[in-house]
Each structure stands twice: as C-alpha cells, then as structure tokens.
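Human: I would love a firmer grasp of how sequence relates to backbone shape in proteins. Could you go through the record with me and say what the backbone is doing? Here is the record:
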Amino acid sequence: MPSDLEIARRALLTPIAEIAAGLGLEEDELELYGKYKAKGTLPVMKRLAGRPNGKYIDVTAITPTPLGEGKTTTAIGLSMALNRIGCRTIAAIRQPSLGPMFGIKGGAAGGGHAQVVPMEDFNLHLTGDVHAISLAHNLLAAMVDNSITHGNKLRIDPLSITWPRVVDVSDRALRKIVIGLDDQGHAVSADALRTAGAMAVLLRDAIKPTLLQTTENTPVFVHAGPFANIAHGNSSIIADLVGLKLADCVVTESGFGADMGMEKFMNIKCRYSGLTPDAVVMVCTVRALKMHSGRYRVVAGRPLDPGLTREDLKAVEDGCSNLDKQIENARLFGVPVVVAINLFRTDTEAEIELVRQRSLAAGAEGAYVSEVWAKGGAGAEELARAVLKAAERPTQFRFLYELDRPIKDKIETIATRIYGADGVDYLPAAEQQITKYTDLGYANLPVCMAKTHLSLSHDPALKGRPRGFRVPIRDVRASMGAGFLYPLLGEMRTMPGLPSEPNTWKIDLDDDGNVVGLF
C-alpha cells in the first residue's frame, strides 16, 4: 500500500471555497489562505445562533500504546462514513504540534485513506496559529523581564516567575519553571504589565478556526493544539460551536485515552462551552489490548513481538480490563458508548468477537470493526450507523465534580473514580500551592491533571487496569488563560525531550522541493 504521504498527494481536493459554500458559509465569512485552506470568521457565530445544534460525537480511546491505536484516523474516517450514509458531518480536530512531528510520532493527519489534506500543510505551520500563540506568550515573558529591569514598579519577585519561554518543539532546556507572584503574594496579570492588548493583536487571526478537508472532501475544522497529558487535549470550543450549527453532526476528538482527553473534554471543555456530547466512540485495537495484558513489551521504532500478530485470546481477554475501565469512565458522565475496533490484517474473528462481547458486558452499545485506514469512509458505515443510533438515545449528562468543591476533593475524585486509585498523596510543594491558589481565589477552577498517558495510573509501567496504587501529587500550577489548575502527578514533565533517533532525521525536501519523511 502507498505511504500516507503518497495517498494524501493523490487525493482529489475540492477548492476550499466550494467546501465552505456547501456548508452554508457566506463569502465574507471566509478568509482564504491559498486554494485549499481558509479561516472562518467569527461573525458567523452570531448569524447562526438561532439554528439548532447537530449531534455531538467525541472520539476517545483505551490507554494508548507506542503502537498507536488510530484514534485520529478513526475520527476522520467516521466523519467520512457519516457523510456517506447521508448525515452532513464536520470533523473538528486539533492542529498537530511540531514537537511530536520532529520527535518520535511523525504526522498527525490520520492515516491511510482517512486523512486531513493538504497533509504537509496540516502538519507543518498550517495558517500560523501555534506560532502566533507562542509569540504572544513569549512577548509577555519579555515584558515581565523588562518590567523588572526598568525599576520593577509591580514589585515582581524574580524568583517566583511562572511564565517561561515556550517553543513548539521538544526541548529539555525549557523544563524548569517556578510560580510567579509579586513580593506581597498577589498575582500579576498581563493587564498589569500593559501587554494584553498587544497579545490580542498577535492572536486576532489565531482565534479563527481553519477549514480543511479529508481525502473524501469531508469538511474539517482545525483549531488549537493542546496535549491531553499536560493540558486538556481538545480542539477549540469555537470550532465545535460553528460546526454544530452548520452540520447534522460534529465528530471531535479528545487526546490520548478516555482517562485523559475525554475526562477533560467532559469536566473542562463541556463546562465552559455549555455543550454536552450525544455519544462517545471508544477506539481500541486487538494488538493494543494484547499489550495491556502485560505479556508483551512494545518499544517504538523496534520490530513487533511476533506474538502480537498471532491469535492470543488469553492476552486479549486480560488486556480488555483496560477497555472495561475506559468504557466505565465514559459512562460515569451519562453518555452512551460505542466501541470502534480499528482493524489490522492479523486480527482474527475470534479475537474480534471477544472484544465485542467484553464491550457489551462493560456497558457499551456495541463494538464495530473500523477499516477506514484501508477503505476510507466505506470502511466504517456500520460503525457510523451505530453511532447515530446511540446519539439518538436520551442522555443523562453529568459532571464528575462541582466547581465549588475544594481543590483536593476535585483531584481525589478524578484519581479514585477515573484512574481507580486508592487515594492521593501530596508532596510539600503541592500542599503549599493548593493553599496559595485557594487564598488567591482560584479554588473554584476545574482541575486538569498532568500525568502519563501510558497508564491509567501515574506510573507508565502499570498496564491494563492497575489496582492498589496511590497517586502522588508533586506540584500544582495554574493556567489562568485556559481557566484551570493543573496538578503534576508523579514524574510527569510538562516539556518532553527528543528521542535518541528523532523523526527530524527523516524529514527533508527532495530535488523537486517536495516534503519527504512525514510518514
């Protein structure tokens, strides 16, 4: 089969102005960035305010493995399949970070015949949103330094600055930050530094979602790009709001497993947006479930253990403990769950049937094979019908915690109910910060846990459904612009480093100026 990049380049793209017109966007509600990408302008939200919302589908997954479970591929393929069965659908996903791109993961546009195109544009710079955000962030960092240098009228304590420089690549040198207050213990804002207006100028285009398309010309809104292990891991509320007014259905995606991006989608994003999902799609693969049994070790970039490609019902059965828990996590929010089994050619019918039965036993509406990587939208029509059926069911959506609960209560609720921990232990730095944020009036913010994505626990070595563990909280920090507190669990770092063999080595231009190395 051709590579992802070759498939993407062979796709027959429709001019983005035609895609927009098909959605009902007016000419003055679109800002073109060439022929195949555009920005949607914000006045469209006011024009469409009276329309009813379409169905809202969140795609999540079991705890991810280095193999990759194909969550983005499934989200894109499902949106195409829904269009094929007559449901006007828009996909809403995040813009990839250049950190994984030049690190170990490579492209993030989906895969095979279920991709966002133009693939190179999507993965590299796109319309410059991430660069605008990083520049606005670093401008504020420079203004903090400048204020201290020129008399320090705001009396900022130089040893307690929380605003570090940022860059959209993995860089170990940017790992160390501390908390920032003035020397009287008051928070210092961008307004106090007279920088908020300049930051807004830098972000005036980044606030607008970018419109692209899939390999089958299904519209895609791309907006925002936070990771789910250290941030909330979801695309923007604006993109979802516009999409739900324009289409019968919006398929969005939450990063990493259901204990990560989906929990934050429900408790943070839905709380701020006022939107609630109609259904959750839980992506899994047979080989990932085998790995969660603990019988197989997978290392990115190394050959697969041959056992992962042979029928092993015992390994699948044991690994389904992770699937059980992630289905349970979705149902905690009162939303129906449909399991998508992302198919690999080595999967056997007996293994697939076992996953189906375990999914039903765990409370899912059903489990359906997805073959969108090989077949595009045609490979998920049965899944699409099942998702629409689930989305028609009445939901009893509920948050996991109320905002007026103390910070520790919110942390412990997530740790015990979502991760399955026996409890939480706080290091002295975390205790100090919880007291400080409570005193500053920030205790009513939602909590965005920063932890490994490779386990339901804080320990990446614990696979399946870990039990009998306690979660250590080493620190608690604040993202005031995003509107949440983020505890750091265990050894979790907010800035990854590059691997020993970074994907950077593979990326280049050929003699004709074409990008190579993006899968």
